[in-house]
Amino acid sequence: MSLPDGTIDAFHRGRFFLVQPRGRGHRAGMDAMVLAAAVPSAFAGRLADFGAGAGAAGLAVAARCEGASLVLIERAPEMAAFARLSLALPQNAGIAERASVLEADVGLTGKARVAAGLEDSSFDYVIMNPPFNARHDRATPDELRRQAHVMDEDPFAAWIRSAAAVLRPRGGLALIARPSSLRAVLDAMDGRFGSAQILAIHPRPGATAIRIVVRAVRASRAALSISPPLVLHETGDAFSARADAINNGRASLFGD
Prior knowledge:
Helices cover 29% and strands 28% of the residues. It is of the alpha/beta class and 256 residues long. Strands 3, 4, 5, 6, 7, 8, 9, 10 and 11 form a nine-stranded mixed beta sheet that branches. It has a two-stranded antiparallel ribbon with strand order 1-2. Strand 8 and strand 9 form a beta hairpin. Helix 1 (30-37) crosses helix 2 (56-64) and helix 7 packs parallel to helix 8. It is globular and about 45 Å long. The protein starts with 5 loop residues before the first strand and ends in a 9-residue tail after the last helix.
């Protein structure tokens, strides 16, 4: 396959592969694998990956959940092209037949959103890894990387509003963000999602959390709960047994 200055990288120990830009743009890592692991292992239905990039999180769900079909939704044309290349890889043949790429802005509203291909009540699950960094946190001359990491305005209100619109009743939502974004996330979910579960991710025992994963259910009235945290490294630099299992698609984040 002819690559536009990209690399082919294995994930889940070779269960799927990703075509990613070389030395620029966003390259997937632990965040995408943790987000994918928030989806229950028994999930079977139609899933949307908002801001999919080259498709890491969505393909990780499909690799673990054989009953899942997915739409990789990406606004940046270049990253959408990498996602299509990922689906075209022979190594991903078993997943690609359940996946497609939609080039669209998930922040659109109303008729514009529907016209872009994001119809109301058309998905059973939405996952998202919004560009939640402030400009001064991730200053970069690489515009493709900036688009993936930095949002000039709060992305959660628009993205969660769209997720509520495209999800069927009782559909699921999972997102990953910085802990400082928790209030914005919960505010955006208010009146749209319930049964929220919050899980903090810590680099080491006793260290401050560096990420949160929030999972919720469309139109549920159930109360919020806090799940046991994920610790990435218990001793040394190696992943903990639980983090390694999650990173390689052998376990779900919330134990289901």
